[in-house]
Structures are given as C-alpha cells and as structure tokens.
Automatic annotation (TrEMBL):
The chain crosses the membrane at residues 668-689. The lineage of its organism: Eukaryota, Metazoa, Chordata, Craniata, Vertebrata. This is CNTP2 protein. Residues 208-372, 440-626 form the Laminin G domain. The keyword Hydrolase does not apply.
Length: 737
C-alpha cells in the first residue's frame, strides 16, 4: 500500500506545512516516489521540482563550436514530472537569456539561433513570456523591445548586455530538458542562461469527485485493464450504511469493492479459481460523513485491502491455478447490476495510476452531480486559532478574518516591531458614528449580541497577545473608556508584569502583580487574560493558569469602552499616575497576534480589512514576527539540512511524514537518559578522586569580570570573553590534580 501521499495537495490536507516531501504521483504504479518541495503558503499549493543547472550559466565567449548544449538534470525522471504536470491546473518555468552580441530567436524572420527542448524531446522556438507557435520573446508580445524592428531584445545584436526572460507556462511542453545556444561563434559574443525550477499549482486529481444522489445512479467507464495487476485507490464519504463503490464483470471473472455495512469494506474478485473476498472491519463507523481512504491491490502473488490507517488485510494467491483477471463489461462506479448502489461522494479514484475523470462523466449523467460539498467536516480542524472553515467546490479554505492570525491555516502570527515613542490606537467606534455603532458592538461583545443598553458595557473580556522587550517600565496595552473605567497590561520598572483593572467602586485600581519573573528579558512571552464578571483568569507563557477575583466592592461592568492603545496611551482626560509615568519614553519591542474579544488591532493595521478605518498609528509600523511565541526556529541552511536535495545518498524516509521529522523521538529520549546517567557517574567519580587526593596548594579561580551584572553563573563565564572555553578547560585540569 502507498506510504507516500500522491501530491503536495494531499500533504496540505493532512495539515502539513511547507517542506520537502516524497510524493508518489501514480500510487503503486511503475514511476516510484520522488522528492519535491511543497509550498503551502498560498490558497493553492505549489509543487516544485529542481534541476542542477546553475543560474546565469555562461556560454560562449568566442567558442569555436557552432552550438553550445546545456543539459538539465532533474531530481526526478521525465515521466514522474509529466505525472505532476498532467494533474496540475497550472505549471510554469522561468527562463532567461542574457546576451552580448548574441542573437536569440533571430526575429522577425530567419531560423532561430537558440531553442529549448521540452517534454518528449520536442524543440521549441518560443521564449519565456510568449507562447507556442509564436516565435517571439516577451518584449515582442508587449511591443517594448530594445529595437522595435526585432521581437527579442537580444536580436538587436548590441555590444552591451541585454536580456530576454519570462515564464514558460504551456504545461504540455514542460519541463525544459536542454537549452541549445547558437550565436556564439563571433569575437565578442557572450551569453548567460538561467532556467528556474518547474513549479506546478493545483491538483485536478485530488479533488476530482462525484456525488451519487440516488441509489440507482452510477457512472460507467471503459473496461478496467487489470489482468495481472490491479491497484485501485479512492476516498469516499457517506451517511448510508452500505453500497457498491465499483464493479467490473467478465464471463465468470469479476472485481468489486463495496461498503458491506457501516463498519466493513469488502474487496472481492474471481480470476477463475473461485471468488475471493477480503474484508476490513473498522472499530468506528465509516458512514460518519467524513472522508475515508480505500486502497485495494491485487497481483499474481497476493491481494490486499487497506482502509484509512487501519491494519492492512492480505490474502496470498494459490500457488497453482489461474492468475489472469479477464473482464468484458464496462466498469461501473457507484452501483452494480441489481444491487443497492452507493449514496454519497467518491473522489480521487485511481485505477492502476490513472485518475478517472468522475467530474466530467457526472456532468452528463442523471442522478450524479460533479464535485462534492462538506469538506469541512473532515478538514475543518486544520483551521486553527478560531479560523472558520469555508466550503469550496473543490476543497476548503480557512477564513482568518475574525482572528489575529494569517496564512492558509490561520497559524501565522501577525505582529509588528515598535520603535521607541511609537503607538497605535484602535477606536471601537468608527469616526462619526454614535456609541451605538453596531459593528463594534458585535465585535466587542464576545457573545452577547442582545445587549440593548444605550451604550455598550462589557461583563467579560478575552485578551491574548505575545510580546518581547528589553526595556521597562512600559505600557503594553491599554483599553480606555468614555468613563473613568480602564484596563491595562504593564511592565513595571523591575520588569515584572502587572494587569490593572479600574471598573469603579474601589478607591484604587485592582492590580494583579506577577513578581519574580523578569518579562523584559528580550524573550517572547504570551499573555492570556479572561474576565467573566468578578472572576479573572490569567495564563502566562506555559505556566498553569491562575485565577483572581475583583474586590467585593468593585463594579463588574466595563462601561463604554472607547479605544485600545498599544505601546503608549494618548487619551484626553485624567490618566492613572503610574501609566502616565510609564508612557515616556514608551514601549520598544515587539507585539504579536493581539486580540481583544473579536478585535485584532495589529492585523487591522497591517492587513487592509473593513476594520482598518478604526486604526490610527503614530510612527512607522514595521511588520515582524519577532514577538511571536513560541520562538520560531529558522529553517535549516542547505549545508546543514541532511534532507537537502544535493545529498545524493539520502534514503527514502520510512513513511510520508515531513522530511525533517527525521529524528525518531524515542531514541532521542533514551539517548538523553543514558547521557544523564553517564554524566552523573562521572561527576561522582571526580568528587571521590578529589576527596581522596586533596591538594594542600592554593586553588585559583578564573573569576569572570562582569559577574555581578550577569543573571547567572553561566552567563558570567560567557560574558567574560571569548576565552571562556579555555577557562573551563583550565578549571577541569585543576580539578584533576
């Protein structure tokens, strides 16, 4: 059974992020898996296959040969790349020719000096930015070539460097396997060629689906050719408890896949030795309207059936007897003669590596609809941080508009760097509207749209954000109101965090002080504050949540909220004395994913949304994830990445997980435990030796200068100077005297 996914699209819908992955575009067909880079940052996934030709490869420089041939070797075979391009919605490859007295296509008439060879070894006489059958470069189509008499910049034959470049996007011709350069035999002729990787977007096969709405409806295709080997895979989704997925008949031979009951999938066939049936039983119902994957294989040695990640069921073939599956009828998908048909959706149906176009056939078949809805039931959990799953005809997307996050799965923090003196204000009411402004009311009141008071009051708030700074004191966040009520998150002069509430009814504001934790240490910290009436819950970083209670006399209504400030408070009227002091010089550092109830002020400032009119910024807001928490680890450089494409010896990882999860965690933990045990034994030995041979001489230490200011002993040694490694070595020598 396939251990690799069929495409980057499939990895994305397992919730994977951008990385190198092994994909197997034809299932268990002859092509074998290949390694590609999957870029998941956009709505549609990009699949990239690289080759070994350096960018700006120089050719010529007065070479005697008439032609210079540049060969491109890819990290995959041409057939493998064809499997990707044929199932993609769009593919492109960048190509560029820089020239000095070296003509390119020799336009408008004349034979081309340079051409490229694509799929099936065909020569092509068009260049990037142009299309098949048009012997022009991009400038010839846009009519802005260096010399208007020619259709390529290079064809003007100038002594200065010129360039023709653009995308080749006729996917049936890709990838580029050779570039043949011809005009190099004159003194002073020089050229440089660049070809980018092949990039493809979208996967027509993965979402190719049909919905069977009546039990008598089915799709028919030509007879399945699977005499000696059959490899069938598909996804299904249903709320019915039984139904036939597909069937193909012969005189007595047949092959059939069906849902026998809510928990059983059956694969049955007869090659002339009597019927064989393999059944996979699931502990959970399969008619839960979620997508389930079925993989059935049969060859002369054995047959197997797998459903989702359940154990593979295998049946060995008899050692003697018939081995060829001889079928005559058409292949029926969704029903079989006289039996109850399948109700629900089937998608991505592949028979021996070829995806059947269910969608096209469904368009002309009564009782069957092309496409399938309801992807969110299976994939909605990948929309994180309050992102909403949105159904699409072929797939789904995550709507992150009500969150402080971004990206295809709403997991990318939206944050910014604040320079000293910079601040941001988010007005809860649009300029020129009354306090009863409805948009703000629904966003502000986390779940109470039925508030009918003349002005808005909050009984509860939810606040979450992350920050990093090295300067204290400062104001991180402040919520003002049209009354004396306010809420503030501060870093006090000693670097500790303070949450301050003033809701009226108490002489002094109510403070929550988090002592003994320096928050101004330049590390990202996360803050989550939830208030419901009198109860306040605070969670800091990964510490357990702690609960607090407003004093009995305190009001529990936050009356008439007006604006939210980040970095500094610039508000008319009386301001709390401490906050006024903390305002200068202001916050310097990073704030990320700030969210107050349903308002995301930083995102409104950095992404044009309908809430952007509420934002006022003083200074320049620079987008940055420096405040993102937890610390994001930068990707490995090509030199240190063991999975980088250049490593010729890289073996296949044992399954289709992200390459880079390469380390087995269990062995890492065991190794760690062993290391700790050995270290402890060594330490004990050293102490014993010292104790037995106590030295009466003096014992000097290499005291680190600047130790007073350092936070810990380790820091003191490291602050000291680059010799700190030698210091440790010296002291080791002294220990063993």
């Amino acid at each position: 059974s396939a251990i690799y996914e069929l495409s980057c699209e499939a990895y994305k819908h397992l919730g994977k992020t951008s990385n190198y992955y092994w994909i197997d575009p034809d299932g268990s067909g002859t092509l074998g898996p290949l390694k590609v880079y999957c870029n998941m940052t956009e709505d549609k996934v990009w699949t990239t296959v690289y080759h070994d030709l350096q960018m700006q490869t120089s050719v010529g420089g007065n070479s005697p040969e008439k032609l210079s041939v540049l060969q491109l070797n890819y990290s995959a075979t041409m057939d493998q790349i064809s499997a990707i391009t044929s199932s993609a919605e769009y593919c492109e490859q960048f190509i560029s020719y820089s020239c000095k007295m070296s003509r390119l296509l020799n336009t408008p008439e004349g034979n081309p000096y340079t051409w490229w060879v694509g799929k099936a070894n065909e020569k092509h006489y068009y260049w990037g930015g142009s299309g098949p059958g048009i012997q022009k470069c991009a400038c010839g189509i846009e009519r802005n070539c260096t010399d208007p008499k020619y259709y390529c910049n290079c064809d003007a034959d100038y002594k200065q460097w010129r360039k023709d470049s653009g995308m080749l996007s006729y996917k049936e011709h890709l990838p580029v396997s050779q570039v043949v350069v011809g005009d190099l035999d004159r003194p002073g002729s020089e050229a440089k060629v660049s070809v980018g990787p092949v990039r493809c977007q979208g996967d027509r096969n993965y979402w190719n689906a049909a919905s069977f709405v009546t039990s008598s409806s089915y799709l028919h295709f030509s007879t399945f050719q699977g005499e000696t080997s059959a490899d069938i895979s598909f996804y299904f989704k249903t709320s019915a408890s039984d139904g036939v997925f597909l069937e193909n008949l012969g005189n007595t031979d047949f092959i059939k896949l069906e849902l026998k009951s809510a928990t059983e999938v059956s694969f049955s066939f007869d090659v002339g030795n009597g019927p064989v049936e393999i059944v996979v039983r699931s502990p959970n119902p399969l008619n839960d309207d979620q997508w389930h994957r079925v993989n059935a294989e049969r060859n002369v040695k054995q047959a197997s059936l797998q459903v989702d990640q359940l154990p593979l069921e295998v049946r060995k073939a008899p050692t003697e007897g018939h081995t060829r599956l001889e079928l005559y009828s058409q292949l029926y998908v969704g029903a079989a003669g006289g039996q109850r048909g399948f109700l629900g959706c089937i998608r991505s149906l592949r028979m021996n590596g070829v995806t059947l176009d269910l969608e096209e056939r469904a368009k002309v078949t009564p009782g069957v609809k092309p496409g399938c809805s309801g992807h969110c039931t299976s994939y909605g959990m990948y929309c994180a941080n309050g992102g909403k799953c949105v159904e699409k005809y072929n797939g789904y997307s995550c709507d992150c508009s009500k969150t402080a996050y971004d990206g295809p799965f709403c997991i990318k923090d939206v944050g910014a760097f604040f320079e000293e003196g910079m601040w941001l204000r988010y007005n809860f009411h649009s300029p020129g509207t009354s306090v009863k402004d409805l948009v703000s009311r629904t966003l502000l009141s986390s779940a109470d749209p039925e508030i009918t008071a003349p002005d808005l009051s909050l009984n509860k708030e939810e606040l979450s954000f992350s920050f990093s700074t090295t300067k204290s004191p400062c104001v991180l966040l402040y919520v003002s109101s049209y009354t004396p009520d306010f809420m503030a998150v501060l870093v006090n002069p000693t670097g500790n965090l303070q949450i301050r509430y003033n809701l009226g009814g108490t002489k002094e504001p109510y403070n929550i002080d988090i002592d003994h934790r320096n928050m101004a240490n330049g590390q990202p910290h996360t803050v989550n504050v939830t208030r419901n009436g009198r109860d306040i819950m605070l969670q800091l970083d990964h510490y357990p949540p702690t609960s607090y209670s407003l004093p009995a006399t305190s009001d529990i209504q936050f009356n008439s909220p007006k604006a939210l400030f980040l970095g500094k408070v610039i508000e008319i009227g009386k301001i709390d004395q401490d906050i006024y002091k903390y305002n200068t010089p202001g916050f310097t550092g990073c704030l990320s994913r700030v969210q107050f109830n349903q308002i995301a002020p930083l995102k409104a400032a950095l992404r044009p949304t309908n809430a952007s009119s509420h934002v006022h910024i003083q200074g320049e807001l620079v987008e940055s994830n420096c405040g993102a928490s937890p610390l994001t680890i930068p990707p490995m450089s090509a030199a240190t990445d063991p999975w980088h494409l250049d490593s010729a010896s890289a073996d296949f990882p044992y399954n289709g997980q992200a390459i880079g999860d390469g380390v087995n965690r269990n062995s890492a933990i065991i190794g760690g435990v062993i290391a700790v045990v050995i270290f402890t034994i060594l330490c004990t030995l050293v102490f014993l030796i010292r104790y037995m041979f106590r030295h009466k001489g003096t014992y000097h230490t290499n005291e680190a200068k600047g130790a007073e200011s350092a936070e810990s002993a380790d820091a003191a040694i490291m602050n000291n100077d680059p010799n700190f490694t030698e210091t440790i070595d010296e002291s080791k020598k002294e220990w063993l005297i």
